[in-house]
Design a protein that fits this description.
Elements lengths: L1 E8 L5 E3 L12 H16 L7 E6 L2 E8 L2 E8 L4 H15 L4 H6 L7 H13 L6 H9 L8 E4 H24 L6 H35 L1
Parallel strand pairs: 3-6
Antiparallel strand pairs: 1-2, 1-5, 3-4, 4-5
Length: 220
């Protein structure tokens, strides 16, 4: 069944709405999946996820998302929930969102403040709860070919790519931090110029001293 729904903005990753939620002790665990759905929204916003439609496998659930006209529609379902129905659900919400003025979506600045959409999401969620209704059975068999165009990914792989990108970013910054030991770029240039000369001079003197000591030893 449909468990968590988020509608967000691609441009800045701002979550706009998530429907009405009724939390109790049995489903508080969904907060963790909500955070992961928000993470997916941020990854889409920064361009890490390119596909316009994707299914992301996570534990015994899956996150399905759809991108249309700068808006991301995300739904968390149990892994046994038909994927075709999940995307029909997202497309129904998309059609309702497109009835709103685009400037309204751009003006929203606070997370989950698009309250007009909350009730719409809640209504569709109830409609898609039972997969055996006549309407849902028709949708289930209506467009099975759509699934061929949907990319499937593991959440753990997305997390790993995120960690790798963070490591590469830190490595790119590290050389700049190392130069600060000289306090200024000018001192660093002077040190880089004269240090090899100084090392060569000291080495030559040391070798000369050792040579003289050996000669004195032979004379004795």
């Amino acid at each position: 069944m449909v468990k968590v729904t988020i509608v967000g903005r691609v441009s800045d990753g701002l979550p706009l709405a998530r429907g009405l939620r009724y939390w109790n002790e049995e489903n508080v665990y969904l907060s963790r999946y909500t955070q992961q759905a928000e993470f997916i929204l941020q990854e889409i916003s920064r361009g890490a996820l390119k596909a316009s439609m994707m299914t992301i496998l996570i534990d015994h659930h899956c996150i399905n998302y759809l991108i249309e006209n700068g808006v991301v529609y995300i739904v968390l379902c149990e892994s046994t929930y038909p994927r075709t129905l999940a995307f029909h659900y997202l497309q129904d919400i998309q059609k309702e969102v497109e009835k709103f003025d685009e400037t309204l979506l751009r003006k929203i600045t606070n997370p989950y403040s698009f309250v007009k959409l909350d009730g719409i999401i809640a209504n569709f969620s109830r409609q898609y709860t039972d997969t055996r209704t006549q309407v849902n059975l028709f949708k289930l068999h209506d467009n099975k070919k759509q699934e061929l165009n949907i990319v499937t990914e593991e959440m753990c792989n997305i997390f790993q790519r995120k960690r790798n990108s963070e490591i590469m970013r830190r490595l790119a910054v590290t050389p700049q931090l190392e130069s600060t030991i000289w306090c200024s770029p000018r001192l660093e240039v002077i040190a880089m110029k004269w240090t090899p000369i100084l090392v060569t001079g000291i080495t030559s003197i040391a070798l000369l001293w050792v040579s003289l000591e050996l000669q004195e030893g032979c004379i004795i």
